[in-house]
Amino acid sequence: MAEEVIIRFDNVDFEYQEKRPILDSACFSLRQGAKVTLMGQNGAGKSTIFGLIRGELKPKNGQVSISKDSTVGTARQMVAREDLILTVEEYFARAFDPVPHNLPGRIAKVMEVVNLQVPLDRKVGELSGGQQARLLLAFALIEEPDVLLLDEPTNNLDQSGIDHLIAFLVMYDKTVVVISHDADFLNCFTEGVIYLDIFTKKTEIYVGDYYSVTEEITKRVEREEKKNAQLQKTIQDRKEKVNFFANKGGKMRKLAKKMRDEIEESEENMVEVRREDKTIRDFTIPAQEMNGNIVTINFVKIIVNHEPIVKPKEIILRKKQKLLISGPNGIGKSTFLRSLVSGKNDGAMILSEVVVGYYSQDFANLDFAQTVFDSLDSARTSGYDVQDMRAVAAGFLITGDLMGHLVGDLSEGQKGLLAFARLVLMKPGLLILDEPTNHINFRHIPVIAEALNKYEGAMIMISHAPDFVKEIKIDEYLELDKLAK
């Protein structure tokens, strides 16, 4: 007996208030227990699909159907800023109205599922990025939803966390829809792809594992390009003959008309070849002229069993030197960077007068209430006028129409590109980067890696993206898990 359809999109059109079409006659259905990837260019409507499934958005035309009494849970990309001051228990209580008396027991159950062990009275904002990623998944699971929506669930997770998540999803017997740029992760458990095309606004359905589907899409694009090339050649040949015959009169003029009809038919048969996302332009982060010991580390604090321990470790960073900090989620990597930036790290110091360019994994250094223009302008240093600033922003796909938007209204990927544009405008002597590829489209990552390799100041970085790390020329390593032994 076939499994029941749990979600159905029937000729769904959607556009936002500014009359910007996102979906045009979207049609697809998902059966109970299906595990699919939602794929598409930035801005194609992946988050919109999630909003329609949750019922937060309403289609302009068509119908979105969820089977009767089915519940939907979402693991979002990031914890909302207003939730960072809550304790873990208070955070989970937000999922219920009224709050059940056995909430601590239910929390313990989902925390075990996501392999997270933290005290219930710990503030959410005190958790590491990886711990918050697991918390987001646990929050989505606590109501035992029939449909689980995952938005970039591997961001901030170490390899152990990713492996645990894969094992859970393989065994999970309910419907899962995932947005992710992590191809290896997706290939482990998804069985189909819903592709959203930003240019046609259409949805396309593919069946198979992630790698097979992407290969199929690539081959299809190649076939479309070949067909277009053949048609273009035919069209050009016919146009040349039309110009010749049109001036001959009599039967030749009739032949010219017939050829014009053939040209029109060929042009109609031209396939709209999928155009992928634009890639950011090559860029350089200018370095402040600094000499001496830009960063001096004498000891580090490591979190073991939720308690800090101090370990001696001497590292000195000068210009053109790059340090990678590694270790599992929750060991204190991001805490170390935050304390270093704030000047509250007893075991490490930054040379005075050094301009620090800080990329925070949760964008805590961005003012969400500022406009994009003001955010860029506040980072602008001497040597850049407003026209230069706009040119830098355009290189990161931050165009003029975004300048008046609030930073908080940008997608996470756009916030990441804004953060990089600000680094260029700051001319820092020290870069401190905490998971700089989170939320970033994979097409941009080689460009970012090249820019970081060319950077001539000092740099400290945390990253759980092994392919990205391999592209960076690292001089020093601070392996906190080895130091903890």
TrEMBL record:
An example molecular function term from Gene Ontology annotations: ATP binding
Assigned keywords, A-Z: ATP-binding, Coiled coil, Nucleotide-binding, Repeat
Residue ranges of coiled coil: 214-276
Native organism: Candidatus Falkowbacteria bacterium CG10_big_fil_rev_8_21_14_0_10_37_14
Keyword rRNA-binding tagged: no
Gene3D superfamilies: P-loop containing nucleotide triphosphate hydrolases (3.40.50.300)
Pfam families: ABC_tran
Name of protein: ABC transporter domain-containing protein
Domain ABC transporter: 7-223
